[in-house]
Every structure is written in structure tokens, then in C-alpha cells.
Amino acid sequence: MKNTIYILAITIVSLQSCQEQQSASVDGVQSAGALHEIMSGNLEANMSLEELKDIPNLYALGAVEGLKGEIQIFNSKPYVSEVSPKIMDIDTTFSAKAAMIVYAQVPEWKEISIPKAILTTKQFDSFVYHTAAKEGLDNSKPFPFLIEGYVRKIDWHVVDWDQNSSTTHSHENHRLTGVMGVTVQEKATILGFYSKNHTGVYVPHDTNWHMHFISENERTAAHIDDMLFGEYMTLKLPKQF
Predict the structure, then answer these.
(1) Which of 63, 106, 138, 140 is deepest in the core (most CB within 10 A)?
(2) Boundaries of domain holding 95
(3) Quick one: the chain helix, strand, coil %, rounded to 5?
């Protein structure tokens, strides 16, 4: 009798665990907060990263509340970069809160070689849009992507907003109040979200994409302002989305 009760209890716990795992999922591209709200001066938190910690195969990028850092999540591992006396600290916990965040769940990626002729982000914009359609994605809807390989150059920044120094929000002011840098001839993993219909939400007004990256040594994680592609880079698109 005791064995029967024990087995029944284990079964109930297992079923509850399965239900919890099934509920920890994301449908398509989701977001909280918006760039246009940040530009209007609303820097308050719209989501805690704790809400995302149990979702497998999660990819996300965004800005920390108060504009005090950049958020990157690669395959459910967070890299929250903040300005410090050491130039940059990277927190790998889910303790931060986001003023703006965009995220998606991608269990499997399909790899596509990026042509050597693709050098600039403008060229890449057209390439990723048409390649997504070719691979069966509905490019009228937002989709995530990864880029891997050696970059020629990445211009990046980590925001560190000081409300006492300026109240005017612009992309340039955000760059100037934080740390800016250039990564050259280094292997990196880049996460991006592409959309022609979410300008001012999670896509800046002058592009169709929003990209962050993590360096191979995991010492640099930041927002990408511009980049030059390397010769042998790989684009990854969701297999099913």
C-alpha cells in the first residue's frame, strides 16, 4: 500500500512538472516596453527577466530599466552588460529588469552561408529579408535571426543613462552617456530581430533590425550600432516559426 501511494505521488509530481514545462513557451516574437516610450522619457521596468528564466531555447535583447545596461539572452543564458570602472561588467543571472525587451523561443535553427559580397548592414537588410521568404518564413511578420563568424568590425555601445546630465533622449545621446567601442576581426555571435512593422517598438527608426552581440570570450556584450561583415559568416533562421 505504501509503495502504491509513493508511486502515485511520484506520478502526480511528474505530471505537474510536465505541465509546467509545457506552459513555459513563447509564441512567435513577443515584447514588453517600447523604444518610443524610452525616447519620451519612460525608463521604468516593463518586465523582470525572472519571468523568462524557465523558458528553454530563449533568445532576447533589450535595455535595462533606467537605461543602465544592455540585455542579451542566448539560448536561455543571460548576458546583462553594465558600465563599471572596469568598462563593462556582465551579469549572467536573471536578476535585471527591462525597460524594453523583445524575445522569442527557437528550438532549432537552419544555417545559411552569407555571401562574401555582403559587407554592410544595408546589404544584409535586403539579404535577410529575401532569404527568410526563400526559407519559408513569413517575412511580413517579425522574426529572430543569428549571425556567427568573424566580423570585420562592430561599432557598439552599452548605455548608462544619467538623468542629471541630459533629459533629451536620442540614439546618439544614449551612445554618448555610456561606453562605446569597436570590435575588429573577432569571432562573435549576433542576435537580431527583423521587422518592417515594429519601428519605434523594438526596431530603431532608421533600420528594419535590432542587433546585439556577444564576443567569443564573453567579455563584451552590447548593442550594435553598425558593422562590417566578415567573409565567412553564417546566418541562422528559425527552422519552424
Answers:
(1) 63
(2) 30-105
(3) 20, 40, 40
